[in-house]
Amino acid sequence: MPSYSLNIKRLRANLSELSKIGKIEGKAGINRVSFSEEDMAGRDFLRRYMENIGLESHMDGVGNVWGRWLPAQAREEKLPSVIIGSHLDTVPEGGEYDGALGVLAGLEVVQSLQEQGFQPRIPLEILATSEEEGCFGGMLGSQSLAGVVDENWLETAQNQQGVSLKDAMKRHGLDYKNALSNTRPSETVKAFLELHIEQGPVLEQKKLSVGIVNAISGCAVWTICFEGRADHSGTTPMDMRADAFVGAAGFSCAIPDIIGAVGTQESRLTIGKIEISPNYPHTIPGQATFSLVLRDTNETVMEKLANQCRSTLKKLADEHGLSLSIKEISWLSPASCSTEIVKLLQEEADKGKIDHIIMSSGAGHDCQFMMNIAPSGLIFVPSKGGISHSRHEQTDWKDIEIGCRLLQNAAIRLCS
């Protein structure tokens, strides 16, 4: 098989150009938050680029953007596609690489192969999913393609500003109910590949350019509220208080014990946001509301962690005279990458003399839902300092080139 090259300089320029979309005065980083004006502008940018290089492009009913390279033979025989994809949306004040690199890397693979005369035997598609970052509590784009959108969640989903998913989509001419009929038939897809930054420190610490992912953690998101009694901080004795913050702080301190009792090395429990009320220096907090994000690569372990968390929260509520409410925002199950695709990626890495490791992903990715449609694989490239979801997010371009080379070689093999 002939050797094919990549234009990494062009990929870098395209990422820089896309990163201009979402830079907002007064805000740090990139702000292409799901279904914002900036998010949709990024999708328009991608569609124009796809069309300029001769791909058939469209945006589906939930905002996923598609570009299709369809050779004549595949058109006649209606052969299944290889899809390369990731997402374009960002967290607020996010980085340039998360998601966008994977989409544009796939586009560079296609454009370079076109220029060098490669003729795929089957269609090659580029996919940019919508709402991957969970602004509304899920991964709408890939979940809809996999046919696993929960209708109750769809009806009630809101972002942190209280905007409903249905209203956010309506602003851009999209009907949220499209998510229930947007399933991609399995027989139309041969394989799905995704390249993504690691978002953690492992590859950098091991001085490796590539990680081949074999499992992706599940993720549960809760909102927890302790209700106590707001009292004067000077006149209320310590043993007569119902301090909601004490309950929240107690749970935070209990996290290592919970993981030690029922968790694994893959377990993660995180309180990322907390609000107390009345939130005055001389007033005992009467209410503490906080988030909990629970992750593991094994769903049975996730369930044990969830049960242990509930038990600990109830015990703290009873001890401190508090009422307790727990709202489950979302539950995304863990997933295992296709052994077939993992093996293919290993073989291509070995052929290309690319040092690599097999690793799990603690973060969720579109790949975990695309697995419901077709054999799927995920390639990691390092994140400097393990930093992600930050304007300081960065990946060395030498590592990106190596990861893209592996992505290209895997795509060639699957399309030949």
Order of helices and strands: HHEEHEHEHHHEHEEHEEEHEEHEHEH
Number-wise, the strands total 14
Shape: elongated
Beta-strand percent range:
15-25%
Distance between the terminal alpha carbons, to the nearest Å?
A: 10 Å
Gyration radius, to the nearest Å? 23 Å
**What structural class do helix, strand and pairing data support?**
alpha/beta
Overall mean pLDDT stands at 95
Overview features:
416 residues; 13 helices; 36% helix; 21% strand; 9-stranded mixed sheet; alpha/beta; 5-stranded antiparallel sheet
Summarize the structure.
The protein is α/β, with parallel strands linked by helices and 416 residues long. It is 36% helix and 21% strand.
Structure, described:
By secondary structure, this protein is of the alpha/beta class. The chain is 36% helix and 21% strand. The protein is built from 13 helices and 14 strands. Strands 1, 2, 3, 4, 5, 6, 12, 13 and 14 form a 9-stranded mixed sheet that branches. Strand 1 and strand 2 (65-69) form a beta hairpin. The chain is elongated, with a radius of gyration of 23 Å. The model has no long low-confidence stretch (mean pLDDT 95).
Q: Helices and strands in order, then pairings?
A:
Elements: H1 8-19, H2 37-52, E1 56-59, E2 65-69, H3 72-77, E3 81-87, H4 100-115, E4 124-129, H5 140-146, H6 151-156, H7 165-170, E5 189-197, H8 202-206, E6 210-216, E7 218-227, H9 244-262, E8 268-270, E9 274-277, E10 287-296, H10 299-319, E11 323-332, E12 335-336, H11 339-351, E13 356-361, H12 367-370, E14 376-381, H13 397-415
Parallel strand pairs: 3-4, 3-5, 5-14, 6-13
Antiparallel strand pairs: 1-2, 2-4, 6-12, 6-14, 7-10, 7-11, 8-10, 9-10
Helix pairs in contact: 1-4, 4-13, 9-10, 11-13
